[in-house]
Design a protein that fits this description.
The complex is a heterodimer of chains A (about 450) and B (about 350). Chain A is of the alpha+beta class. Chain A contains eleven helices and 17 strands. In chain B, strands 4-3-2-27 form a four-stranded antiparallel sheet, with no helix packed on it.
């Protein structure tokens, strides 16, 4: 057997073992519920993301939801700031208007039971992000602006999928966009401080579809008021949310929030012929919209309804100035890996080949440190593409939880020779800035593939 | 409580309006005697599973667990009993599923046990049996699909035009009927299963509004439904023959068979119910009342009537509901709390 053939066989064997190692070691962290592809958003597989599940009481999440509704989470972040809410029938942008926190509380419960990580992940632990089969991510089940194209996640995609606060901010922003959009009809004077006013925005958050019409034949015409925990069959989405505001879910015998009286529109009275909630009015609007998208007048203007009698505005909520700091913390970066010295990662070939090479991302500060792989050579693979490292400061977590990025070589398609690359890890900070850490790494594929980081072979 | 229910049901049964060719007066209907009590198939929802129970109609404390079906948190099953009342099909959102429009699985439960027969189905698209019990019709990712009721293999699929929401309503022989709800109201489509394909053979516009409560006659030759007309706003219950040999299928038979007074069109509601004898009637009620009783289904002998009784605080404010059935002696029997009627059972 010639040396060339031997080299080829060894290379093939190594590639096979590496492929197995990647498939085995990386596949192990995927959850059964994660879909294999996202045909509705990019066509590729969902991103492999890591989140932490904080505590069963959801208190930190509830705090974040409260902050998000008043644009106090990421007010200077163009990807995650809450747009000014349009107030009144003229939809005048108001910099002071807020989403009542109860609205966001209830959405998050309906969407995910207020869970950011997969249901199998214990409270106080890191694990795969909750990803629905239709590729909705995290607490707010965000799908908008996430393109699962098989590549690395963008800043927006990574933060939505890994960090609960960004996920919540994204959900609040999507809801605000529905509220502001002139396409959707209004309730009363379109006053955001009346939760009843959010009826149509909630409908649109879930999907401006007939199935959410209260008079749609799929919905039970004799449904009793929805109770959180009851089966959802036969209820339009907005009724689920509004009723959960009035009848909050209980965890360990305690309501997650204080009940707030909510008056649902009397849809039976409003669904008569030509009335705003006549199903035909909705379908006619859809028909107009498809023919003249963006046309004038708004296709659903006939669906505007009066404020239900008895609706009361929500009392403003005082948010302590320190709450944002409590929720987001002040993370401090520290990267660790065996052989990582002077900024270079010295890894053995066997580590890389077996997928056991890893970089640990520590948070020596507080809150969550969000990281993502921003750039990497095509011949490297990762178990997760983005995650969070947990620092101190959360009552439910008694010690910091470093995040581990496992690295494997996917050398099968790489021609023989020396290849050098860099792993760029982006760190996204709560103040909106991004810094990067670069880890040089090299591959020398000379028959029996050999890896040595930081020392290019020639 | 039982007395109150009895009184309520007696009053509400009096509101059942006989159909055009019906001679039965529901308020004073006399029941045949003899034979044992039938069994009620009812479901009990839990967060992550639903239990199917068989209850003795004359003593619901005597009950047997038929199946326990796992499902995603928050979504109850949709179940349907075969015409011979010996098998039940149930759609359940897969425990790992999320989207009720794509992630449902189909279970079959009969004397041989329980098994999953199909997946990737729509939870809210309808679930009906063929009259011979050999097939079920479901919706799969928006397309009407006929499945083998034993093994779930697809026998034919038909997809409606975009923007039309299809819903299965009946199957007799190789003919399927489905409604299509769209911008111009409701269309009834007739589909034929031939040579491994499901093809539309004709359709008719049956309403410029929406329809619901589709009920196939016991002989499967007629179908009834509730309609809220868009133009007039009239609330109607209509009955149409499903005979396929009529050239003017649909239209000639779609005159309203029962209508609510227009002035009360949205303050009343109604639904058709068939007697085993083939006679139909209308259960109508006034939404302004505190109590509502919906007739659900007669047992095969026409002796027992299941009802959904709702007690509320006023218009649009139903507070609680209860599954009950009225027996041949006029006695009213309540199911355990939170049980939902699936069907009468002979299996």
């Amino acid at each position: 057997m010639s040396l060339r053939v031997l080299r080829g066989l060894l290379a093939a064997a190594l590639a096979l073992s590496i492929g197995f190692a990647i498939g085995h070691s990386l596949g192990a962290v995927r959850t059964e519920a994660a879909p294999s592809s996202c045909p509705g958003s990019g066509g590729g597989p969902p991103f492999s993301l890591q989140s932490v599940e904080l505590d069963r009481s959801r208190q930190t999440y509830l705090d974040a939801l409260r902050l998000a509704g008043s644009n106090q989470l990421f007010p200077a972040d163009e990807d995650f700031e809450l747009p000014p809410l349009a107030v009144g029938l003229e939809r005048t942008p108001s910099p002071t208007a807020v989403i009542p926190p109860q609205v966001l509380y209830a959405i998050s419960w309906i969407e995910s039971k207020i869970n950011q990580a997969h249901i199998d992940i214990a409270y106080g632990a890191l694990g795969p992000t909750l990803i629905s089969p239709d590729c909705g991510y995290g607490i707010m089940q965000v799908t908008s602006s996430i393109v699962n194209d098989g590549g690395l996640p963008s800043r927006y995609e990574a933060l939505v999928g890994t960090h609960f606060a960004y996920n919540i901010a994204a959900g609040a922003r999507i809801l605000a966009e529905k509220w502001n959009h002139s396409l959707f009809p209004t309730v009363g004077d379109h006053d955001p401080m009346l939760v009843e006013s959010w009826y149509y925005a909630l409908w649109a958050y879930n999907g401006w579809a007939g199935i959410n019409h209260p008079a749609h034949p799929s919905n039970d015409p004799f449904r009793s008021p929805y109770q959180c925990g009851q089966a959802r069959n036969g209820y339009p989405y907005q009724e689920l949310v509004l009723r959960c505001i009035a009848d909050p879910p209980r965890v360990d015998g305690r309501s997650l929030w204080d009940p707030l009286p909510v008056v649902l529109p009397d849809w039976t009275a409003l669904s008569g012929s030509g009335q705003p909630l006549d199903l035909d009015v909705f379908f006619s609007g859809l028909d107009t919209f498809y023919v003249h998208p963006g046309g004038y007048p708004p296709p659903f203007a006939e669906m505007n309804i009066p404020l239900p009698s008895g609706a009361q505005p929500v009392a403003p909520v005082d948010t302590p100035s320190s709450l944002r700091q409590q929720v987001l913390g002040d993370p401090v970066e520290r990267l660790e890996a065996e052989g990582l010295e002077a900024g270079e990662l010295n890894l053995t070939s066997s580590q890389l080949a077996s997928g056991q090479a890893a970089v640990e991302i520590h948070n020596d500060g507080t809150g969550l440190l969000a990281w993502r792989v921003q750039d990497a050579p095509s011949w490297l693979g990762f178990d997760i593409q983005a995650g969070v490292a947990v620092g101190a400061g959360y009552a439910s977590i008694d010690r910091p939880l470093p995040s581990e990025l496992r690295i494997a070589a996917a050398a099968g398609g790489v021609p023989e020779g020396s290849h050098r690359g860099r792993i760029t890890i982006a760190l996204d900070w709560p103040d909106g800035t991004t810094t990067t850490s670069v880890i040089p790494i090299s591959l020398d594929k000379r028959g029996a593939a050999f890896y040595e980081a930081g020392k290019p072979q020639s | 409580m039982a007395l109150a229910l009895l009184l309520l049901i007696g009053v509400l049964l009096g509101l059942l309006t006989p159909g055009q060719h019906t001679t039965i007066e529901f308020g004073s209907v006399s029941f045949l005697h003899g034979g044992g009590a039938p069994r009620v198939l009812a479901s009990e929802y839990h967060d992550t599973f639903t239990t199917l129970w068989l209850l003795d109609a004359d003593d619901p404390q005597q009950r047997t667990r038929l199946a326990r079906l796992p499902h995603a948190v928050g979504w109850d099953i949709e179940a349907s009993v075969s015409a011979d009342q010996r098998a039940v099909a149930a759609l359940a959102l897969s425990p790992s599923g999320w989207d009720p429009d794509t992630d449902a699985v189909l279970w079959r439960i009969d004397a041989s046990g329980i098994r999953e027969v199909a997946a990737d189905l729509d939870l809210r698209g309808g679930l009906i049996w063929s009259d011979d019990g050999d097939r079920v019709v479901v919706r799969r990712r928006g397309a009407i699909t006929v499945l083998d009721a034993q093994d779930g293999s697809p026998l034919g699929t038909w997809r409606a035009a975009a923007q039309m929401s299809p819903h299965t309503v009946a199957m007799r022989g190789d003919t399927v009927w489905a409604t299509l709800l769209g911008a111009n109201g409701t269309v009834l489509a007739e589909l034929q299963l031939r040579e491994g394909a499901l093809r539309e053979t004709r359709r008719t516009q049956i309403s410029d509004g929406w329809t619901r409560d589709w009920a196939l006659a016991p002989d499967t030759r007629s179908i009834a439904w509730t309609e809220q007309g868009a133009g007039s706003g009239e609330l109607s219950v209509r009955v149409a023959p499903l005979a396929s040999d009529e050239s003017d299928w649909g239209q000639a038979h779609l005159s309203a068979n029962w209508s609510a007074p227009p002035v009360e069109r949205y303050e009343r509601s109604a639904m058709p119910i068939w007697q085993p004898s083939g006679e139909w009637a209308v259960g109508s009620w006034d939404r302004r009342s505190r109590e509502v009783a919906l007739p659900l289904a007669w047992d095969a002998a026409g002796r027992w009537l299941a009802l959904r009784v709702m007690i509320g605080l006023g218009p649009g404010s139903i507070e609680s509901e209860q599954l009950v059935w009225r027996g041949p002696e006029g006695d009213v029997i309540s199911a355990p709390e939170a049980f939902r009627f699936v069907g009468w059972w002979s299996g």
